[in-house]
Specification:
mainly alpha, 5 strands, 3-stranded parallel β-sheet, 54% helix, two-stranded parallel ribbon, binds adenosine-5'-tetraphosphate
Length: 325
Amino acid sequence: MATVFSGVQPSGDFHLGNYLGAFRNWVTAQHDNDAYFCVVDLHALTLEIDPADLRRRTLDAAVVLLAVGLDPEVVTLFVQSQVPEHSRLAWLLECTATMGELGRMTQFKEKSTGSESVRAGLFTYPVLMAADILLYDVDEVPVGDDQRQHLELTRDLAIRFNNRYGETFKVPRATIPKVGARVMDLQHPEAKMSKSVESPLGTVRILDDPDDIVRKVRRAVTDAGTTVEHDPAGKPGVSNLLELLAASTGVGVAEAADRYDAYGPLKQDVADAVVALLSPVRERALELRSDLGEVERILGAGATRAHEVAQRTYARAATAMGLVL
Ligand code: AQP
């Protein structure tokens, strides 16, 4: 049985990209693997966030993860800050990483550009992510394409640490889905759909009501011309719609492109497919929101299980580095 870990930041409302790129693959992975899924609240502190919002969003993240189909009897679902070894191992790994390699992270460049005062945590956040993963002796990390570079860094840090201090960490690999790995913003199809970027019409939220989903897809930016082709560089808007249809229905992208000779019917089918995909999740989430006490209980049990594993790995790494425990 492989060990699987992945996490999500409670930094905003979850969207179709999070669902197709990550969550639904977590649901698939949960039955055949030893799976850990984490609401990475410490990562959300790297950007401006209201404390009351963070508290609410952390519980709501768990609500969405349960609603998409994670089974708390099968997976370990927990909140990162409730397992202190994440921060403790991050420090050991910060003393393994270099400024140069962190400065090359494209997410850091994107999120810090134009900001007058960039938090140090935004710079070191990929190291905390490495700690999240390495604590659980993970084989596979199911993530969207945007996390590919951070996974490479995690592997580099694990290998460097092992070479320097002796075999300590398992070196994980990313598993990135073939379709849905990079869902683009419906209004700005050259940018990925993202929860911390203000694009109300461009972002389909997992908990949007069906009318909103239809409205957003109908108003999606298409491209000059009228032909339906999959050409991400030349026709990013239409290509994104085709990829959404493929990821939501299982049809191939090329086959989907052959089916349409106008944008209107394509948009209608994408809207129907996305509504069909997300409506059951929305219904379950609304039910779960009415019993947050149960959600907190699930997270507490998950943190206890995660902590048992995390403290063993942390002790191994600290001892290897020469700390007296
Ligand atoms: N647009 C996307 N397409 C496919 N997958 C995506 N993911 C995120 N955006 C897309 C995947 O969702 C998982 C959880 O990501 P996250 O929320 O922890 O952080 P992120 O990657 O930084 O996502 P966002 O939405 O852009 O959040 P903010 O704006 O807060 O940074 C990851 O597996 C990610 O790959």
